[in-house]
Design brief:
Strand content: 15-25%
Order of helices and strands: EHEHEEHH
Largest sheet: 4 strands, mixed
Number of helices: 4
Protein name: Glutaredoxin
Helix content: 25-40%
CATH architecture: 3-Layer(aba) Sandwich
Pfam family, one: GST_N_3
Strand order of the largest sheet: 2-1-3-4
InterPro entries: Glutathione_S-Trfase_N, Thioredoxin-like_sf
CATH class: Alpha Beta
CATH superfamily: Glutaredoxin
Shape: globular
Length: about 100
């Protein structure tokens, strides 16, 4: 990938969101290049996320490699593991527990 090209994954997140941090850890663990887009704290102000994913919750991941746009941290974790992981992570069940902001 050239240095001027955008990373194939765009990650919509909220500062300090534990569900977003779960996704961040996994993206880092799999050494995936991504672009962070921080969203507004107020749900009603998250128009960009609503346009992209149809929801105002975060995290949301848009993966240009596969054409997938996905919300909900548990779904994103499952997707990243099945698409980019080896499937043998011992903490996979713990990583996929929980809701979203």
């Amino acid at each position: 990938m050239s240095e001027t090209a955008e990373p194939p994954i765009t990650f919509y997140r909220l500062q300090g969101c534990p569900y977003c941090e779960r996704v961040t850890r996994l993206l880092t663990e799999y050494d995936l290049e991504y672009r962070s887009r921080f969203v507004e704290p107020m749900h009603s102000d998250r128009d960009v996320v609503k346009r992209v994913a149809g929801v105002r919750t975060v995290p949301v991941v848009v993966d240009e490699n596969t054409g997938v746009t996905m919300a909900e941290s548990a779904n994103i974790v499952d997707y990243l593991e099945s698409t980019y992981g080896e499937g043998d992570r011992p903490d996979a069940a713990a990583a996929s527990a929980g809701g979203d902001a």
